[in-house]
């Protein structure tokens, strides 16, 4: 589904990604871990097409299609979803209206008619129930006055509504207490299928207790320096990142 080949990218002439190779197949969950400043969020931003990052070499392919010339909204229409580390507040736009607009814009991009109002309402109710979201929550302004846990749960609700092919969760666990973490992780697990894939970016093993990855990749200084199974995340929890850095230097 996602294939990244020798990806080099940076911002304002500062190279951050220094040759990333990664393949993610449908039905898989990949965790990307690494110390601060290793390039994890930059990788997520480049896949999603954030324009401040410049790709200087390499390719990002989604189902065999090169995304180089695709704007962020085009990538979203093709099925890429990025959950933000710090979701922004949008006063005056309700959660429900935001979702209606997002879904209908994607349908329009695919040459489809707008989703009928009764079908949209049914879908909103089903996904809210799936993620244990109170109906009152849906009529609030997007992220305005939301707690950290509510913001993250709202991101997963958006993911449930949009049904992306590839979901990238950028440090979704940051700032969450254990109950909020469990609810968010349960939502992700309920949405996993053989037709979609998930990339989880995290510092900590604790999220991976709930969202169990098929593969774990360690990013350091803009490169994937080690890959393995979920046991690698446990090893990182126990030993930290210094042994990986030392191994890389050696």
Could you characterize what this model shows?
A hairpin with a 2-residue loop joins strand 4 (54-62) and strand 5 (65-66). The chain is globular, with a radius of gyration of 18 Å. It has a single domain (2-249), classed as P-loop containing nucleotide triphosphate hydrolases (Rossmann fold, 3-Layer(aba) Sandwich). The mean pLDDT is 89. It has helices spanning 40-48, 72-78, 95-109, 117-130, 148-162, 178-191, 230-239, 242-249; strands at 2-11, 14-24, 29-33, 54-62, 65-66, 80-83, 90-94, 141-142, 166-170, 197-201, 215-220, 223-228. By secondary structure, the chain is an alpha/beta fold. The protein has 8 helices and 12 strands. A 6-stranded mixed β-sheet has the order 6-9-10-3-11-12, sandwiched between helices. The protein has a 4-stranded antiparallel β-sheet with strand order 2-1-4-5, with helices on one face. Helices cover 37% and strands 28% of the residues. Helix 2 crosses helix 3 (95-109).
């Amino acid at each position: 589904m996602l294939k990244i080949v020798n990806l080099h990218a940076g911002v304002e002439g500062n190279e951050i990604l220094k040759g990333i190779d990664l393949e993610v197949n449908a039905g898989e969950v990949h965790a990307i871990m690494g110390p601060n400043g290793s390039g994890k969020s930059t990788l997520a931003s480049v896949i999603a097409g954030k324009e401040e990052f410049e790709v200087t070499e390499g390719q990002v392919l989604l189902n065999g299609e090169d995304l180089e010339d695709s704007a962020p909204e085009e990538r979203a229409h093709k099925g890429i979803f990025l959950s933000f580390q710090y979701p922004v507040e949008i006063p005056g736009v309700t959660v429900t209206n935001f979702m209606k607009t997002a879904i209908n814009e994607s349908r329009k991009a695919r040459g489809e008619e707008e989703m009928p109002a009764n079908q949209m309402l049914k879908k909103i109710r089903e996904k809210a129930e799936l993620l244990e979201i109170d109906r009152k929550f849906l009529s609030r302004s997007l992220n305005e006055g939301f707690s950290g846990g509510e913001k993250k749960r709202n991101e997963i609700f958006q993911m449930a509504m949009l049904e992306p092919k590839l979901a990238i969760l950028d440090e979704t666990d940051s700032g969450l207490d254990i109950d909020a973490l469990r609810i968010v992780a349960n939502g992700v697990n309920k949405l996993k299928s053989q037709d979609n894939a998930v990339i989880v970016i995290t510092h900590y093993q604790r999220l991976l207790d709930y969202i169990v990855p098929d593969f774990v990749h360690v990013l350091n200084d803009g490169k994937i320096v080690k890959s393995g199974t979920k046991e690698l995340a446990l090893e990182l929890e126990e030993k930290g990142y210094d042994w990986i850095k030392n191994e890389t230097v050696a």
